[in-house]
Amino acid sequence: MTKRSRYLLTLLGALLWAPSVVASSTYPDVIRDHLGLEDAPLCTLCHADLDGGEGTVVTPFGENLVAMGLEGEDKDGLRRLLDELDSTKSDVDGDGTGDVDELLVCGDPNDATGNDLCDVTEPSFGCAVVTRPTSGTSSGTSSGAALVGAALAAAAFMRRRR
Ligand SMILES: [Ca+2]
Ligand SMILES: [Ca+2]
After folding, report:
1. Residue 129 Cα, ligand 1 centroid: separation in angstroms?
2. How far is the CA of 127 from the centre of ligand 1 (A)?
3. Domain ranges in the chain?
């Protein structure tokens, strides 16, 4: 095995070890696609902050989905529950407009005062890129570690060639 092939195997291993960041769509993407929205809603539609993650669902909309049986990584279940929310005209904030109807017009189903969900800056990170819920830690951290490992392997290889 040549040094080059060892290097390539090391790099490939590091990349495979990294969590799949782009391969799996997440709940915000499922909501966007299922409802035909222009943009995916922020993680704070359901979660306490933009990091998302298990045990951080705190909003009325998110708590309602959990009460209806939604669990993590159940994209089909989320689609089914969105249809159910739509057909039952669920209105968790009690402002007279259904949750799904609010999402369709950038309204906030968690806020009866008329906040506009589309009038916010999208995060460049957060639950929309977290795809490994079982780790309990940020996958961004392990992804970064994998990339650092790959960079170190490349640097070591380049040093040996000199
Ligand atoms: Ca409402
Ligand atoms: Ca509302």
Report:
1. 28
2. 24
3. 1-13+134-162, 26-132
